[in-house]
Design a protein that fits this description.
DNA-binding, rod-shaped, H15 domain-containing protein, Histone_H1/H5_H15, 3 helices, single chain, three-stranded antiparallel sheet, nucleus, Arc Repressor Mutant, subunit A, WH_DNA-bd_sf
Length: 109
């Protein structure tokens, strides 16, 4: 009998298809939390300032998803108070009441 060479393994396993990375969703356009907060507080006519709860209601009325972005709102408030754009009239941190800082003649905070 003729010797039969063992069958060569099927050509190397076909190369696996490269995994495609999921495309990142495009960044939302529009004003950020800080801009919306400044707009809401400056539009308020409250003498003692706008409370945190009222501010969240105002943002929700403008179409901002406060429930899912509450951390962004708190961080934006703390940042604006630190920069001096907002004045905290009551409370500490992100709770309490806030007023927009009075602008000078040049319109800069």
């Amino acid at each position: 009998m003729a010797e039969v060479a063992p069958a060569a393994p099927a050509a190397a396993a076909p190369a696996k298809a490269a995994k495609k990375k999921a495309a990142k969703p495009s960044k939302k356009t529009g004003p950020g939390a800080s801009e919306l907060i400044l707009k809401a507080v400056s539009a308020s006519k409250e003498r003692k300032g706008l409370s945190y709860v009222a501010l969240k209601k105002s943002l929700a009325a403008q179409g901002y998803d406060v429930e899912h972005n509450s951390a962004h709102v708190r961080r934006a408030i703390k940042t604006l108070v630190g920069k001096g754009a907002l004045v905290q009239t009551k409370g500490t941190g992100a709770s309490g009441s806030f007023k927009a800082k009075e602008t000078g003649e040049d319109g800069v905070y």
